[in-house]
Specification:
single chain; 179 residues; mainly alpha; 9 helices; 74% helix; Ubq_cyt-c_CBP3-rel; Ubiquinol-cytochrome C chaperone family protein; Ubiq_cyt_c_chap
Length: 179
């Protein structure tokens, strides 16, 4: 038992989780989103981009069993742990964090349902509308929404082309937003 908790296998698994989560975060932090596509460079804007890229990862592994299914669950847990830490770093009190976490989880799952529906139907227009509602709700028209939807479709296709085995070994690649 001691070996399972603290042994090499546990360390290797942690390294894979950290590598995958790091790649998801790096994809979400592409400066092009904020500089050229006018995603707000705010905590909420960064949450939107991280949520989108986490959704794409989860969408890729949806329906997988075994290690890939466990990996998907572990990564979503890692995502919400990261969100919790971010709220605390923003100065949200211990009393306020659970309430905010509940709200952010509801936001995440609402978005993923809308994005998944549009992707399943290959409806780039509906995807752009959902992205606009979520990423830039304060503007009447977010002209970059169509470009973002095209990127999401490209990212979905790029992730679909990556083997589950490679992903389970910590290899994940999102396309560049600019191009």
């Amino acid at each position: 038992m001691f070996q399972r908790l603290f042994g090499r296998q546990r360390q290797a698994n942690r390294a894979i989780i950290e590598a995958l989560y790091g790649q998801i975060v790096a994809a979400a932090r592409q400066t092009f989103f904020y500089s050229d596509w006018n995603v707000p460079d705010t905590p909420l804007g960064r949450f939107e981009m991280l949520s989108l890229h986490m959704f794409l990862f989860q969408h890729r592994l949806h329906g997988e069993s075994g290690v890939a299914g466990e990996l998907a669950q572990t990564l979503i847990d890692e995502f919400f742990t990261d969100v919790d830490h971010s709220l605390r770093e923003l100065g949200i009190s211990d009393v306020g964090v659970p309430k905010r976490m509940k709200k952010l989880a509801k936001m995440y799952y609402g978005r993923t349902a809308a994005y998944a529906d549009a992707l399943e139907r290959n409806d780039e227009g509906d995807l752009a509308a959902a992205l606009s509602r979520n990423v830039r709700p304060e503007v009447a028209v977010w002209k970059e929404a169509a470009q973002m939807a095209t990127y999401v479709m490209r990212a979905r296709d790029a992730l679909a082309g990556q083997s589950s085995q490679a992903i389970c070994l910590g290899e994940l690649s999102y396309p560049a937003a600019a191009g």
